[in-house]
User: What shape does this take?
Amino acid sequence: MEKLELLLKKIHHQLSDEERILVDKWIEKNDKNKLFFEMLKGLKGKGEDLKTLSEVDINKTWESVLNRHQEMTPPVIPFYKKPIFRYGIAASILILISLGYFLKPEKNTVSTPPEIVNHQISKGTNKATLTLENGTVVALEKGKLFTSDQAKSDGEKLIYQNKTSTITTAPVYNYLTIPRGGEFYLELEDQTKVWLNSASKLKYPVDFIPGQARKVELLYGEAYFEVSPSSAHEGAKFYVSSALQEIEVVGTAFNLKAYEDEDAIYTTLEEGVITLHIGDQNLTLSPMDQAILNKKSSTVEVKTVDAYDVSSWRNGVFSFKDMPLKNIMTVLSRWYDTDVIFENKSLEPLKFNGVLRKNQSIEEILSTINNLKTIAYEFDYKKVIIK
Assistant: This one.
């Protein structure tokens, strides 16, 4: 079966367990593969018929994309509601990938240059703190290797050994803490994949007991899970708990955002089926469903969203859809490890649409926002002040 056909089956949630393993390995192999798959998902999110892509020569497309991408990587492009070309043509794929980063302008405005005072704000990197079962704390960051009997890390990811467990007693737990200005990839002993966003902390067992439920806990923050299916683990289900709720998983992909400083917990399903247990309430989600749990009232709202946009942070981009400036600045403050102060409160509800690369400097990000809608701001050491 052709790679493209398998990718389309993944987007439509039609892969077998064996096919999913193969496709996931191909996607994670390099950045080009990831970029191509993100493009395909983006087309689906726009409601286009992906069947017309089946005749595309994927190898030639990749060669063209690579050459084009090296020549042209603008931080910002105009926002288009509808692409100009039909998606069944390789040229249109090339253009969509090359022009993959945008913000939607409200109107033409005259920007005000920021005042920079002792600016010391850096973009985020791969870094985390691992707390072992004996209390030992290990700093994980690029350039530092870590190896133990259970796991190894190259400073950008942490992989636990996939082995036949013989434990029969209660499992022992490790903790992975991601600071502000960081993110990290984790692969659990059962081969479940977890991407952890800035300011997050996960509790998980070093080994899972064969045949028993696999349980982890997102203590706070945001994580994207690709769960190893129950069929590969003697039918053992997978559970992710967070404040006020528990997620029951069979084998699927979803995003969970449960920051302590936010009023709600957001559970967004991308593939498969999950069930939320909230007190006496059981709620089953389908792909593209997002459950919003109000922490104060314990009420739940379910709406349809673009799940790929919600989880785009793990693929190196910020995606904003009708997002208030206050919320955008909260996201940026975590990634750039900075404090944001709104002196002008009237700007907080101002909404933006767009996609920006996470490897940009905060100056580039704010300059883009400022060019679209005049917003005065300044840097002061580790602070951004919205005037």
